[in-house]
Write the structure tokens for this entry.
Amino acid sequence: MEFLIVLMKSIIIGGLVGFGVGAGAARMFHAPKVQGMGAFRTLGELNACAGDAVSHFSFGLGFFFNAWASSVGAGAFTQDVDHRIIPNWAAAFLIRKGKRVEDTLHNPKKMAIVGTIVGAIVVGFLNSTAAAIPESMQAIAVKVLVPAANLLINPVMPVIFWLAALDAGKRSGTWGTIFGGLAHLIMGNAVPGVVLGILIGKGVDDSGWNRVTKTLLGSVIVLFVLSGFFRGFDMNFIQAVHLDVPAWLTDLHSLISGGGKK
């Protein structure tokens, strides 16, 4: 009975997630005329498959096994489920028999419908299999699969994105390296910084240093400054070079975090 409850809830949740992911991914191809809903890497990876149904399916399949291992071993989904598996498998189903991407992948209505079906099947399968496996086997899986998944997230994925930045051109490689290094120091993962570096580099290559690219660069710098401050990176850096943290800086962090005296 408990298994059936898990399965039914998973199908409902998976269908809702698939609806949003499918429609949102398709709407990204119509930006800036309409507002998209998705991740920068999702758009890039969908484009990288070049409208080939087999490529979309195999790309999603490669991340499906990692997501399955994570759900079984750790009891939690990876971001690959909604970023990579559902949109790519929905696209693979729609593009079959040589149909044009403009009529399939770029159509929010069709992607939402197929995404609902794919999401219900994927989430239902992942949750039901995770619920059916004995706890003793899950404990073993945690010790084996979680470290492997962590290695994929860091350092494998950052290296792949960094190589992609270098391959995209001199500017993208330079900005990707700079912001990737800062992101690794501040956030613990270089991927967000590398992606922002690619975006800035390609923007400058396409349109030069105009108002948009300068605003984007300024926004990224502000983002890193604020992220570093709220994560306490400034204090950690000062301590790392064996200097004393100024009292005013400590008081400022304490005040903002709510730890100051009232």
Notes: The two ends are 53 Å apart (CA to CA). The CA atoms of residues 235 and 249 lie 8 Å apart.
